[in-house]
Amino acid sequence: MTVPSRTDLLSAWERAREQSVVDKAITMLTAAYPQSSRDDLSALPLGERDSRLLGLRASLFGTYLQSVVACPACGTQLEFTLDTRDLIGSPTSQDSAPLSVTAGDTSLSVRRVNSRDLAAISGSVDVQAARRLLCEQCVLQATRDGNVIPAANLSAAAVEEVASALATADPRAELQIDLRCAACQHRCQPVFDVVSFLWTEIDLLVRRLLHEVHALAWAYGWHEADVLAMSNARRQFYLEMVR
User: Fold this and answer.
1) Using one digit for the tens of pLDDT, what is the confidence trace for 74-123?
2) Biggest alpha carbon distance in the chain?
3) Which of 12, 64, 149, 242 is 20 to 30 A (C-alpha) from 87?
């Protein structure tokens, strides 16, 4: 991973502003993995993609992150701190290997869910339709009695079996946080949305940088690239001088 420069981060932010959440994730990764193509990053299993995003987050903002969520029982705001090192898993040789799933008399070879699959199901009308489409996307081969059958012909039970196997095979794809409300003692497990959290932080950082560029360009006539190339300490010193 390469720590993006301020210029690279600003360019990625500019491209990602109008993109979908799925595309935002890939655009942020391209800033940290310039040697990888967008297609390659889109093909990463979701758990690996999100682990890389957490690594990017740690390089930009530090390993600890703070967030807040409303208690689903009483509405109290629950504050919590996470260490990204506890959330980033270690990839194994099994991460890219197809899964073998058996559903009744049907044998299936299945790959893990990636960003392309999320984009494909984004327009699904309901959960059942999304699950079936996801299954059709991820099934590499399905056989029954030695005969290959189309993934679209799988039974509802087979679709459920595939969905369960996919969730078990890539637990990093859905990070759940164990919390207990101090007010009502209710326990909950909200899902930590890595993509949205990191995008919010990058958006705030870039907007602050652009305000600083504007202030120094207005005061001294400097170009954007000159201001962004300064260290934080030098840039803050000049900002204090013009305020």
Assistant:
1) 999 999 999 998 888 665 545 678 999 999 999 999 999 999 999 999 98
2) 78
3) 12
Q: What is the pTM of this model?
A: 0.90
| SS3 category, 68 | strand
Least Cα distance to 115 among 42, 195, 37 occurs for: 42
Residue whose C-alpha is closest to residue 175's, from 86, 84, 65, 87: 87
17 plus 121 within the same structural domain? no
Q: What are phi and psi of 154, to 5 degrees?
A: -70, 145
Q: How many domains does the chain have?
A: 2
Coil, strand or helix: which one is 88?
Answer: coil
Q: Are 61 and 186 in contact (CB under 8 A)?
A: no
SS3 124: coil
| Domain-located, residue 228 | no
